[in-house]
Amino acid sequence: RLLVGPQMLGRVVDGLGHPIDGKGPLSRSRRYALYAPAPAPMLRERITTPMDLGVRAINGLLTCGVGQKLGIFAGSGVGKSVLMGTMCRHTSADVNVIALVGERGREVKEFLERDLGREGLRRSVVVVATSDQSPLVRVRAAFVATAIAEFFRDQGNQVLLLVDSLTRLAHAQREVGLAAGEPPTTKGYPPSVFTLFPQVLERVGPMGTGSITGLYTVLVDGDDFNDPIADSIRSILDGHIVLSRRLAMEGHFPAIDVLQSVSRVMSDIASVPHQEAARFLVQIMAEYRNAEDLINLGAYQVGTNPRLDAAIHMKGPVDGFLRQTREEGVGIAESCQDLEALAQQGRRLLERKGKTV
Known about the structure:
The chain has 2 domains: about 1-270, Rossmann fold (3-Layer(aba) Sandwich), CATH 3.40.50; about 270-350, Up-down Bundle (Substrate Binding Domain Of Dnak, Chain:A, Domain 2), CATH 1.20.1270.330. The protein has 13 helices and 13 strands. It has helices at about 55-60, 80-90, 105-120, 135-155, 165-180, 190-200, 230-235, 245-250, 265-270, 270-290, 290-295, 305-320, 330-350; strands at about 1-5, 10-15, 30, 50, 65, 70-75, 95-105, 125-130, 160-165, 205, 210-220, 240, 260-265.
């Protein structure tokens, strides 16, 4: 069992729950089960309330619900840590619990000072197990973070739990499993890796007066989003956000590929005008992407397809809507207002061309 307490806010602990930030010992009086079972299905509340993550593209087009499990799928170097820091700074959650599993030692302080910042750290608990530590400690770090999140949830808080990353958690469990004599299966992963994911992921959700919203990053090898680990995790989650290397190379941040991403609970938590505006914008983006090669080659003649003409005209405004700096936080109300205004602009453009949606 793990010793927990409200004094953990603003502190950095290791995979065993011991403070490592040089701020002195922690005063903790409660004990929480490290490997607690997931809540029974009939005791869970339905996800009916949107969670403000402070990112316009997510709030508007991939709305996250309070208690949802959402994955962030990305290769290396596409802005994953910056996106995590932005969400922790600007979310409407009361408490952030962040697990850095298998992270490089150099990047821990960078994340804390540059991406999370003092304001974000003030309402966060950070659990760190770097890549040089024992695989048992790295695996334990994810459960330590989840137990801490459950403590704050039971105090009536809305908790945002971020685990970076499930892929490195899988690597640590692979080391443990193979050392214990388990047979390797797909890509050398033993069966215990795939049974570990639901044990970690299914513990989040809305319960009573509190909730845990889970955001889990997944590193995809060679940008292969059909990797066995990514596939297994995606089947358990309530949605996924894909970060595109192509968008990152173009300087488009956050590099969220909206057309490859989905929030499975958005239809239950977003208003009808919000959903209609999001659907229209996604259709416009898909129209442009399907004809992008023709447009770049100069083979498309304007006036041939009114919908594509509108998509070309809207490309700049849509990209402007999706871009955001790390210092900028955009609330869910403002995101929806901007989204609906953009959709209305697109509809008027289509009407002028004699084509209505």
